[in-house]
């Protein structure tokens, strides 16, 4: 798995650049590592936003993973197409997405769908939709335990919101959803302490709800950085996502987690415009551009410095002028894999240094059929 040049192609001549290569053996390693860390596969709810692909979903289902999380209706539809038993849409449905969510439930009756709510207005809208369609909608109350992006603060207002959800005859109260993506300290001890501290308020809210004679709410918690800690909580579902493909950003920040990079950018030198400068065909359209440089980690090009990027081009300073030539192939791990995958229609599948298949990135848009 860690052999030298595990990423390289024996015959790269027919592979277009840029391409995004994926390595099923490494994906399988990451799946097994997730399962071993949590111990109980029924408490795993991986997020599909990173890869948006049926083949990787099916790899997980083959290992007994039945619960998934997603961010868009298109991703939820992909999971429905895969016959995933339990799907949480972890984006509060607003505007037309509320009706689309109901259409999703009707299209895939063999999958259980649920979603999030963090305010009484959305709760009322979803309740009325459920009533008019003669269905029950399953909801999780989205909790803000410090990230300040979505959710409701775990205080009395959250308790009241959950009580209203429980009392609504058209809705089903599933539990509490907690995403703590702001906790990214590279020191695992510090990160665990911060995770536990932020989670205390969630546990207190759970107790408050129970004291109101409401059934104990289930909890879905965390992302990839806090997965090692939430996986220890016996009554909590953990929801990592980046763990499936990994990237150089998390790999350098959280090396103790031992996940393997399973997606590699395949690129070529497009030009050598002047001394000490190389230009690659890896522009904004081919890799997530929101990160500061370096946006990739070259696997086979040492002593390089990324200095600029535009729509189609990545410009790099390089101090060895004797080796690179125009057209030469190179390989790099993206710093942020999730928004990089969405830039590709297909993933080029590699086994034993050869192309064996192409996997469709089916849910890369906001809408599939619903």
Task: Give a quick precis of the structure.
The protein has helices at residues 24-38, 54-61, 73-81, 96-107, 120-132, 156-167, 188-210, 227-230, 248-253, 338-341, and strands at 19-22, 67-70, 86-89, 112-117, 137-143, 171-178, 218-221, 236-238, 263-274, 277-280, 296-298, 304-309, 314-318, 329-334, 346-351, 354-360.
Polypeptide structure, described:
The chain has 10 helices and 16 strands. The strands form 2 sheets. Strands 1, 9, 10, 11, 12, 13, 14, 15 and 16 form a 9-stranded mixed sheet that branches. It has a 7-stranded parallel sheet with strand order 2-3-4-5-6-7-8. It is elongated and about 75 Å long. α3 packs parallel to α4 and α6 crosses α7. It is about 30% helix and about 25% strand. It has 2 domains: about 110 residues, D-serine dehydratase-like domain (Lyase, Ornithine Decarboxylase, Chain A, domain 1, Beta Barrel); about 220 residues, Alanine racemase (TIM Barrel), CATH 3.20.20. A hairpin with a 4-residue loop joins β12 and β13. By secondary structure, the protein is of the alpha/beta class.
In round numbers, the mean pLDDT is 97
Poorly predicted spans: none
How does CATH name the architecture of the largest domain? Answer: Alpha-Beta Barrel
Give the CA-CA distance, first to last residue. Answer: 40 Å
CATH class categorisation of the largest domain: Alpha Beta
Class derived from helix and strand content:
alpha/beta
| Number of helical elements | 10
| Percentage of residues in DSSP E strands | 15-25%
Number of discrete domains: 2
Largest sheet data: 9 strands, mixed
* CATH superfamily heading of the largest domain: Alanine racemase
CATH fold call of the largest domain: TIM Barrel
């Amino acid at each position: 798995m860690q052999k030298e040049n595990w990423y390289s192609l024996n015959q790269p001549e027919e592979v277009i650049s840029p391409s995004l290569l994926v390595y099923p053996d490494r994906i399988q390693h990451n799946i097994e590592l997730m399962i071993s860390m949590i111990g109980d596969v029924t408490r795993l709810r991986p997020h599909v936003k990173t890869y948006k692909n049926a083949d990787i979903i099916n790899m997980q289902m083959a290992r007994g993973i039945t619960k998934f999380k997603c961010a868009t209706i298109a991703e939820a539809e992909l999971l429905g197409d895969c016959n995933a038993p339990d799907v949480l849409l972890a984006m509060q449905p607003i505007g037309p997405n509320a009706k689309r969510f109901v259409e999703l439930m009707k299209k895939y009756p063999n999958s259980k769908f649920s979603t999030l709510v963090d305010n009484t207005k959305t709760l009322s809208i979803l309740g009325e939709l459920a009533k008019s369609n003669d269905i029950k909608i399953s909801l999780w109350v989205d909790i803000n335990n410090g990230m300040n992006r979505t959710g409701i603060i775990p205080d009395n207002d959250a308790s009241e919101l959950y009580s209203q959800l429980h009392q609504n005859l058209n809705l089903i109260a599933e539990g509490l959803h907690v995403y703590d993506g702001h906790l990214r300290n590279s020191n695992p001890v510090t990160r665990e302490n911060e995770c536990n501290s932020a989670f205390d308020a969630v546990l207190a809210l759970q107790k408050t709800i129970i004291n109101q004679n409401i059934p104990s709410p289930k909890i879905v918690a965390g992302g990839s950085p806090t997965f090692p800690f939430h996986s220890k909580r016996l009554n909590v579902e953990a929801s990592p996502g980046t763990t499936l493909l990994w990237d150089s950003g998390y790999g350098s920040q959280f090396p103790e987690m031992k996940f393997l990079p399973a997606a590699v950018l395949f690129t070529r030198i497009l030009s050598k415009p002047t001394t000490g400068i190389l230009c690659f065909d890896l522009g904004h359209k081919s890799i997530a551009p929101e990160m500061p440089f370096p946006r990739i980690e070259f696997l086979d090009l040492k002593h390089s410095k990324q200095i600029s990027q535009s729509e189609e081009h990545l410009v790099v300073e390089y101090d060895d002028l004797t080796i690179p030539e125009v057209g030469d192939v190179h390989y790099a791990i993206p710093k942020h894999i999730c928004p990089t995958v969405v830039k590709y229609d297909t993933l080029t599948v590699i086994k034993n240094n050869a192309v064996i298949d192409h996997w469709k990135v089916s849910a890369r848009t906001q809408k599939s059929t619903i």
